[in-house]
Protein backbone atom coordinates (compact mmCIF):
# COMPACT_ATOMS: atom_id res chain seq x y z
CA UNK A 1 0.00 0.00 0.00
CA UNK A 2 1.40 3.41 -0.99
CA UNK A 3 0.99 6.81 0.58
CA UNK A 4 -2.70 7.66 0.98
CA UNK A 5 -3.92 10.49 -1.26
CA UNK A 6 -6.48 11.58 1.30
CA UNK A 7 -6.50 12.20 5.01
CA UNK A 8 -9.26 12.52 7.58
CA UNK A 9 -8.19 14.27 10.77
CA UNK A 10 -10.29 14.11 13.93
CA UNK A 11 -9.91 16.31 16.98
CA UNK A 12 -9.02 14.26 20.05
CA UNK A 13 -9.38 17.06 22.59
CA UNK A 14 -12.95 18.07 21.72
CA UNK A 15 -15.48 17.40 24.44
CA UNK A 16 -19.08 18.35 24.91
CA UNK A 17 -19.68 21.21 27.34
CA UNK A 18 -19.71 19.96 30.91
CA UNK A 19 -18.48 16.48 29.91
CA UNK A 20 -15.15 14.77 30.47
CA UNK A 21 -15.52 12.29 27.62
CA UNK A 22 -13.50 13.05 24.49
CA UNK A 23 -15.51 11.53 21.61
CA UNK A 24 -12.70 11.94 19.07
CA UNK A 25 -11.00 8.70 20.06
CA UNK A 26 -14.23 6.72 19.64
CA UNK A 27 -14.89 8.47 16.33
CA UNK A 28 -11.43 7.55 15.00
CA UNK A 29 -11.98 3.86 15.77
CA UNK A 30 -15.52 3.77 14.37
CA UNK A 31 -14.57 5.66 11.20
CA UNK A 32 -11.51 3.47 10.56
CA UNK A 33 -13.70 0.36 10.85
CA UNK A 34 -16.42 1.84 8.62
CA UNK A 35 -13.95 2.96 5.91
CA UNK A 36 -12.33 -0.48 5.98
CA UNK A 37 -15.74 -2.15 5.68
CA UNK A 38 -16.60 0.14 2.74
CA UNK A 39 -13.23 -0.41 1.03
CA UNK A 40 -14.90 -1.81 -2.11
CA UNK A 41 -16.94 1.41 -2.54
CA UNK A 42 -14.39 3.99 -1.38
CA UNK A 43 -12.19 4.53 -4.42
CA UNK A 44 -9.08 5.88 -2.66
CA UNK A 45 -7.04 5.21 0.44
CA UNK A 46 -7.76 7.42 3.44
CA UNK A 47 -5.42 7.88 6.36
CA UNK A 48 -7.45 8.53 9.50
CA UNK A 49 -5.69 10.12 12.44
CA UNK A 50 -6.23 12.35 15.44
CA UNK A 51 -4.81 15.73 16.36
CA UNK A 52 -4.84 17.48 19.73
CA UNK A 53 -6.92 20.49 18.64
CA UNK A 54 -8.46 22.03 15.52
CA UNK A 55 -9.93 25.08 17.31
CA UNK A 56 -13.51 23.93 16.82
CA UNK A 57 -14.16 23.72 20.55
CA UNK A 58 -17.71 25.09 20.32
CA UNK A 59 -18.60 22.33 17.82
CA UNK A 60 -17.25 19.02 19.14
CA UNK A 61 -16.28 16.75 17.57
CA UNK A 62 -14.51 18.31 14.57
CA UNK A 63 -13.42 16.36 11.51
CA UNK A 64 -11.31 17.57 8.56
CA UNK A 65 -10.95 16.06 5.07
CA UNK A 66 -7.71 16.86 3.22
CA UNK A 67 -6.41 15.84 -0.18
CA UNK A 68 -3.47 16.78 -2.35
CA UNK A 69 -4.43 19.83 -4.43
CA UNK A 70 -7.97 19.69 -3.02
CA UNK A 71 -10.07 21.98 -0.89
CA UNK A 72 -10.03 21.05 2.80
CA UNK A 73 -13.30 20.72 4.72
CA UNK A 74 -13.84 21.11 8.45
CA UNK A 75 -17.05 19.69 9.90
CA UNK A 76 -18.31 20.16 13.46
CA UNK A 77 -20.83 18.70 15.89
CA UNK A 78 -20.09 15.17 14.71
CA UNK A 79 -21.36 12.31 16.88
CA UNK A 80 -19.44 9.00 16.80
CA UNK A 81 -22.59 6.91 17.14
CA UNK A 82 -24.73 8.81 14.65
CA UNK A 83 -22.72 10.32 11.82
CA UNK A 84 -20.42 7.55 10.57
CA UNK A 85 -22.50 6.85 7.46
CA UNK A 86 -22.41 10.52 6.42
CA UNK A 87 -18.62 10.62 6.96
CA UNK A 88 -18.10 7.49 4.84
CA UNK A 89 -20.43 8.83 2.14
CA UNK A 90 -18.43 12.06 2.05
CA UNK A 91 -15.18 10.07 1.78
CA UNK A 92 -16.61 8.36 -1.32
CA UNK A 93 -17.62 11.72 -2.78
CA UNK A 94 -14.44 13.58 -1.82
CA UNK A 95 -12.22 10.92 -3.39
CA UNK A 96 -13.90 11.53 -6.76
CA UNK A 97 -13.80 15.35 -6.69
CA UNK A 98 -10.74 16.45 -8.70
CA UNK A 99 -10.38 19.72 -6.74
CA UNK A 100 -12.38 18.77 -3.64
CA UNK A 101 -14.94 21.47 -4.35
CA UNK A 102 -18.64 20.71 -3.84
CA UNK A 103 -21.76 22.61 -2.89
CA UNK A 104 -23.36 22.18 0.52
CA UNK A 105 -26.45 20.63 -1.09
CA UNK A 106 -24.24 17.90 -2.57
CA UNK A 107 -22.79 16.85 0.80
CA UNK A 108 -24.42 13.90 2.54
CA UNK A 109 -26.85 14.24 5.44
CA UNK A 110 -25.71 16.23 8.45
CA UNK A 111 -22.58 17.47 6.65
CA UNK A 112 -24.74 19.85 4.59
CA UNK A 113 -25.31 22.08 7.60
CA UNK A 114 -22.33 21.23 9.82
CA UNK A 115 -19.57 22.60 7.61
CA UNK A 116 -17.42 24.96 9.66
CA UNK A 117 -14.98 25.78 6.86
CA UNK A 118 -13.99 25.01 3.30
CA UNK A 119 -10.41 26.06 2.64
CA UNK A 120 -9.28 26.22 -1.00
CA UNK A 121 -6.26 24.15 -1.94
CA UNK A 122 -3.06 26.15 -1.90
CA UNK A 123 -2.50 25.44 -5.59
CA UNK A 124 -5.94 26.83 -6.44
CA UNK A 125 -5.26 30.01 -4.46
CA UNK A 126 -1.83 30.49 -6.08
CA UNK A 127 -3.17 29.89 -9.58
CA UNK A 128 -5.95 32.45 -9.03
CA UNK A 129 -3.46 35.00 -7.70
CA UNK A 130 -1.15 34.44 -10.67
CA UNK A 131 -4.06 34.85 -13.09
CA UNK A 132 -5.06 38.16 -11.51
CA UNK A 133 -1.50 39.48 -11.53
CA UNK A 134 -0.81 38.64 -15.18
Query: Tell me, what is the CATH class?
Result: Alpha Beta
Our count of domains comes out at 1
- Radius of gyration computed on alpha carbons: 15 Å
Strand content: 15-25%
Number of DSSP E strands: 5
Shape: globular
Class per helix and strand makeup: alpha+beta
Main sheet summary: 5 strands, mixed
- Name the average pLDDT: 87
Low-confidence stretches: none
CATH superfamily: Glutaredoxin
Q: Please give the order of strands in the largest beta sheet.
A: 2-1-3-4-5
Protein name: DUF1636 domain-containing protein
Pfam family, one: DUF1636
Write the layout of secondary structure elements.
Elements lengths: L5 E6 L11 H15 L8 E6 L11 E5 L4 E4 L8 H13 L18 E5 L2 H12 L1
Helix pairs in contact: 1-2
Pfam family, one: DUF1636
Organism: Halocynthiibacter styelae
Protein name: DUF1636 domain-containing protein
Summed up:
The protein is α+β, with helices and mostly antiparallel strands and 134 residues long. The protein is built from 3 helices and 5 strands; from the N terminus they run βαβββαβα.
Descriptive account of the structure:
The protein has one domain: Glutaredoxin (3-Layer(aba) Sandwich). About 30% of the residues lie in helices and about 20% in strands. The protein has three helices and five strands. Helix 1 crosses helix 2. The protein is globular.
Amino acid sequence: MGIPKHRITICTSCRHKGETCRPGYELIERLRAAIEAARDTVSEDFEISGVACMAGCDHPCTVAYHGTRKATYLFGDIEPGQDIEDLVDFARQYALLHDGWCSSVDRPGKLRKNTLARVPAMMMALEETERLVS
